Amino acid sequence: MWKFIVRRLLIALPQILLLSVLVFLMAQMMPGDALSGLIDPNIDPAAIEAQRERLGLNDPWHIQYVDWITGVVTEGDLGRSFRYKMDVTEIIGQRLVNTFWLSLVTLIFTYLIAIPLGITSGRYNDTFRDQMITGYTYVGFATPLFIFALVALWILGFQFGWFPTGGSVSPGLTPGTFEYFLSRLHHLILPALSMALITTVNTVQYLRSEIIDTKQKDFIITARAKGASESRVYNRHILRNSLLPIAAFFGFEITGLIGGTIFVETIYSYPGMGQLFIESINLRDYSVVIAVVLLLGIASILGALLSDIILSLVDPRIRIK
Amino acid sequence: MKIVETTNAVENLNIENINKSPSGVSIIWREIMRDKLALISLVFLLLVTTLVYGISLFLDLDQIVKIDLFAIHEPPSSDFWLGTDYGGRDVFGQLIIGTRNSLTIGFLVTLMTGLIGVTFGLTAGFFGGHIDNIMMRVLDFFIILPFLMIVIVFVSIVPNYSIISFSLIMTAFLWMGIARLIRSKALQERELDYAQASKTLGTPRWKIMFGQVLPNVSSLIIVTMTLNLAANIGLESGLSFLGFGFPEETPSLGTLLSYARNPQTLENRWWIWMPAAILIFLLMLSVRNVGEALKRATDARQRRG
């Protein structure tokens, strides 16, 4: 077991390193550098040149990379945003919290939808109920998230007015009060639900085929032969086998969630990482862009790592040699 | 003597009664004919494709994308079937050109990812061992990247951005799915008798790979590429929607949808973005329907026909 975890870590660490190199090279390709946001046109070009030399901006790229990565790892120094005139870490902080809540509520919805639907569809396969659910997954696969989110916002937000059409909380409420909490929840539901309804179809289908597979296994026949009731067969024997891999998949969901939040936060103007990313890239605030890509990239590497480890705990067959 | 006679009889019987096994094309055709949904989808796809490519030959692109300040945000009328956008440009014309552009880039990216993915997967699977190991680590890294963000960053920093660079950037981060699939299939195929026999006879490796293994995995490739086409149309429109796909002067289904990022347009001028949304949905759904029918045709256990 420990051997597997160590081996899996040995794959993840170079991935993070490679990601940081890629991100750094992207930063090098971007116009401007750490100084361009601060430069006053009245400063003597020679002084700027001296400053560039002092900051090491004229060094070859690998030396600059080492400087940069040491700063990131030892001091958490991700640079300054020239739009906000603040440290990038400060800007990201609040946004990260918002995105965290959005992702959490989305995940909860995803499983709340997937588990009952998947179980019904797998248990009563090829019945009318199953056909309805399979029909939903079929349509869900063909619907791009952003179109679904747009239509949901148009109908439920604008036409019916049931949900707010933007932001993360209504203005004028004090943090900490119950109204504040309710308002935040109200702002979260529509974005999270529209993301969950589309991303959940994978899990529903997986659960369905998993249950149909397990249903025909010998140990289920044995359980029935022993006289276990139908509900006991499903709740104790089949679900235990089929739900565990689903639970482990949530690490892989992180990569999907990152893509999803970019769309959903842009459409619902929800102030999270995805929206910050799009805003910053449009305003050419590249130090923020780089930091967001690096952080979320690491998040998805760690998510996959987590899922692999959980999966290997649950199912010893997949441990890599 | 008796025995020989009976075997002869059996052989004669075989020749008369057993048809040749049906060819791949006829199996696919039968499967699509049996599945009415797939048939309708195929007809719809062919219709849309011919229409948009046909009509766009007669449309004047410059006329459509020319800004007309006297016709801003006109509602649908007999002049402008779907109204005009904020630059006074005809939305219906943009829809035709846009569908054509979206389909073109969808086909282009699917073909390029297919080419790279199949070559990568065949090489890794067929050679196996250390080569496979190293190639799979590379693939794992690409798969883990947050696709959307990386593509957006590249789109915004590439100098002389054009349609070609857009499809190249998309291709660079989309070839992994098909590569992984082909690799696992190639791993199985190379152990089979025909591949082993060829190897024993001294056939060069590249000949076995591309002349023998490739035809045997071709059905899988076709199915995967069809399903990828649906996904790629969605991805292109998503990126264009965010403003990092087609530039606005080149309309696509996604750029039409991006007008809906303006709350005014989203709330009150549904005729600008709704047709594009419905069209993307129908295109993706029908490509998937055809893909699923193809998938069943390649797997004898799932066939309906």
Automatic annotation (TrEMBL), chain A:
Residues 96-307 form the ABC transmembrane type-1 domain. Pfam families: BPD_transp_1, BPD_transp_1_N. The keyword Nucleus does not apply. It is found in: Cell membrane. CDD domains: TM_PBP2. Its main location: membrane. InterPro entries: BPD_transp_1_N, MetI-like, MetI-like_sf. PROSITE patterns: ABC_TM1. It is a multi-pass membrane protein. Keywords: Cell membrane, Membrane, Transmembrane, Transmembrane helix, Transport. It comes from Natronobacillus azotifigens. This is ABC transporter permease. The chain crosses the membrane at residues 100-121, 133-156, 188-207, 242-268, 288-314. GO terms for cellular component: plasma membrane. GO terms for biological process: transmembrane transport. SUPFAM superfamilies: MetI-like. Belongs to the binding-protein-dependent transport system permease family. The keyword Disulfide bond does not apply.
